[in-house]
Design a protein that fits this description.
- It is a single chain.
- The chain is α/β, with parallel strands linked by helices.
- The protein folds into two domains: 4-64 and 127-215 and 405-421, Rossmann fold; 230-402, Glycogen Phosphorylase B (Rossmann fold, 3-Layer(aba) Sandwich), CATH 3.40.50.2000.
- The chain has helices at residues 26-37, 75-87, 89-101, 104-109, 112-124, 136-142, 146-149, 160-163, 172-184, 193-202, 249-261, 279-294, 309-317, 333-340, 371-383, 385-402, 405-421; strands at residues 4-5, 11-12, 14-18, 21-22, 41-46, 48-49, 59-63, 130-133, 153-157, 187-190, 209-211, 235-240, 266-271, 301-303, 321-324, 345-348, 363-366.
- Helix 14 (333-340) links the parallel strand 15 (321-324) and strand 16 (345-348).
- The longest helix is centred in the last third of the chain and has 18 residues, at 385-402.
Length: 422
Amino acid sequence: MPLAIRGTRRRPLHLLEVDLRWPPESFLRWKLEGLAARGLRVTVASRSILDPGAQLRGVELVALPQRGTARKLTPAVHRDALALLLRAPGRFVRLLRAVRRASSPYRRRYGGTPGLLSLYLPLARMRPDVVHIEWNHAAALYLPLYAVWGCPVVLSCHGSELSADPHLPGYESYAEVLRQALGAARVVHCVSESLRALALERGAAEASLRVIYQGVDATVFAPGPPHPRGKEGPLKVISVGWPRWIKGFEWALQVLRLLLDDGVPAQLELLGFTSEPDPGREAEGERLRHTVADLGLQEHVRLRGAVSSAEVARRLRDSDVLLLPSLDEGLPTVVLEAMASALPVVATDCGGVSEAVRDRREGFLVKPRDAAAMAGAMAALWRDPALRERMGRAGRRLASTHFTLQRQLEELTALYAEVARG
């Protein structure tokens, strides 16, 4: 039965997701399509449309102007503003106040009053039942609209935007606005208990905090046919993620060098070197390529681009171990995908990783930046195929019972219904 709200007539609950890229990352695509299948009306408003022809089942796309495209009020903005004024004068007044309330750094960055008005206006005209903002940087930008929408706002905390970015030089204004955005949200959704504790420190009200773990489809991420290699074959290692400094991939390369020097034949496949224009990721990717050459790993490392979730599932099935060398995390979806694929995990004990991987049960947990400890764990898995299999089975059991996509969708659906009623 479709999830509906009461009014003069029953209608599907309208969820607005703000400032996702299009198409979204796989874990968000699963969420949005799953909620639409459960009867919600789902709308995504995006400034970053990479593929206008991409479609998600049951999900509507609304295009927002990109940053810097509006330095003066265009006829279209005048027309839309007049329509809002005539239809909902109170909301129009709140919109003008919202533009004036935007902090000075954001006003400068997004084109002053013309830029912010052109960005905010399409969102101010919408009347969702619940607004969900997945990314903390987006929450800081759209904080002035909380009062314009007049409906509950759910703000998610996934990882480094909450933990690391507020400490970066030049992000002082973001840190302050983030605190306000956390405090103003009806619900602050965290993907791990570790992020819940951090969100409380950053300014979220304790009553607003909810932990809902990510989920994966255990029918898509499933074990492949057994391929016991023992010590006679190479250890096939896989890492997945965008090339960002916080992912710690340089330590994965050091681990590989240590394994080879110790006589362990190993191969590393790193997925996620996206072709999207992003100077930070491009610079990090180039640095990693130079590190591969400096360590003499050209014959042992494959740096791959971003691939579909189906291809990630296939590559996981063909690997022996997932290596996660991150410096900080929320609860990375790839860890859950690997566990569902019956793949043992060697990961740094940071963020919420230990809430899914128990040391020496589903894999090994080591301190961040400890390449020697990671290499030791990998060597143990290469020398003991039975240990790999045992840890893989344990991970599969945990992922297919506690970290399912169905459980995640049920909890999110209940959350949206609860806040919409409130």
